Structures are given as structure tokens and as C-alpha cells.
Amino acid sequence: RFMAALLGVVALALLGDFLRLDAQWVHWPASYVALSSLPFLFGPLLLAYVQALTGGEAALRWRQLGHALPWVANLMLLAPWLMLPEPQLIERVRAGLAAPGVGVNLLALGKAISLLGYTGYALRRVRRWQRNLRDQFSNLDRVNLRWLSGLLALFLLLECVFLSYLLGLWAPRGPMGAADTAISLLLTLLVL
Predict the structure, then answer these.
(1) I need a surface site. Which of 70, 93, 129, 160 has the fewest CB within 10 A?
(2) Cα–Cα distance measured from residue 161 to residue 12, given in angstroms and rounded to the nearest whole number
(3) Helix, strand or coil for residue 23?
């Protein structure tokens, strides 16, 4: 269930990227703005999936809903925009997309740091689970999550590349939207 939720959220975020890159967002500006908050759910859903695989709680508990607070906070920050009349919202979004990227985009940086932290914690959890498994069983052929450990390590690498872009340490040759979409597509392919 958590993997299905993660893939659904990533697919919706990719839809938002498509709307931006194809300039179709003007037809659904409120949806486009709301979709921009979804990356805050990537990390919590990835961690929930890893916890379910490594013997943690497979059911969603009330205390785990705290992981969704950054997403809720982002939606609350976007609420004034979402209440604007459509022509005014379109102008605000258009101005934001047309403005040159001066300085660090704090919201994008927050999303990247959140995902980096959750992925690092998930990788640590998988490695700890593998160590405990080795201590308990001599035959690891039947139960092994090396593939997940490798996938999480690759996620960390891609997230570090994206974070280096956000901090201005690296600049892709193409537009940022294309680089962002390419990273999102690659992450989706790796999950599949």
C-alpha cells in the first residue's frame, strides 16, 4: 500500500511538472499550485514502505501522521494563493515562473532536505535490519533486501545532485524544469 501511495504521489507530482513544462497549468492553476506541495510526501511514504518491508508497522498509525505536517504546512502557506480568483492566480504563478532564479529557493530546498533526511534514515534502517538478519540466520538467500539498500543509496546520490543544484554548486545545461523532471522520472523508473 505504501509503495502504491508513493508511486501515486510521484505520478501526480510528475503531472504537475508536465503541466508546467507544457504550459498547460493555465487551464488548472489551482491544481498546479496544490500539486507543487506533493514532494513533501515522498520521504514519509518511502520511509513507511521501508518500515513495512523491514518488519515495522504495516498499518498507518495516528502518531505517524506527524510526518505529513510539512505537506500540510505547505498547503496552508499556499491557501491564500488557492483562494485567489483564477485570473489573479494565473498572474501570480506566471510571474513566479518568469522570474529569474535569484538566490536559493527555500521551499525547494526544504523539499530536498526533507527527502534527503528520510531517505538517509530509511537506508540506515535497512542496513540495521540486514545486520540483525545476518546475526540471526546463516542462510540469507531467502530473505535479502540488498536491492532496496542499493536503491536507497542511489536515491541519496540523486538527491545530493539535486541539492547541489539548489545551492548553486552545479548548474545543468538545460532548464531547471527539465532537470527536475528528469530526476523525478529516473526515481520513478528506479522504484519500478
Answers:
(1) 160
(2) 22
(3) coil
Closest to 111 (Cα-Cα) out of 176, 40, 48: 40
User: Residues with Cβ < 8 Å from 119, sequence gap 6 or more?
Assistant: 43, 46, 152, 155, 156, 159
Q: Which residue do the cell numbers 540486514 mark?
A: 130
Q: How many Å apart are CA 68 and CA 49, to the nearest integer?
A: 15
Residue whose cell numbers read 496544490: 34
DSSP conformation class of 65: G
More reliable by pLDDT, 9 or 144: 9
90-103: pLDDT as tens digits: 888 888 766 655 55
Nearest to 48 by CA among 107, 76, 84, 7: 7
pLDDT digits (tens, 9 = 90+) for 52-67: 888 766 666 777 778 8
Q: Which residues make Cβ contacts (< 8 Å) with residue 44, sequence separation at least 6? A: 64, 67, 68, 118
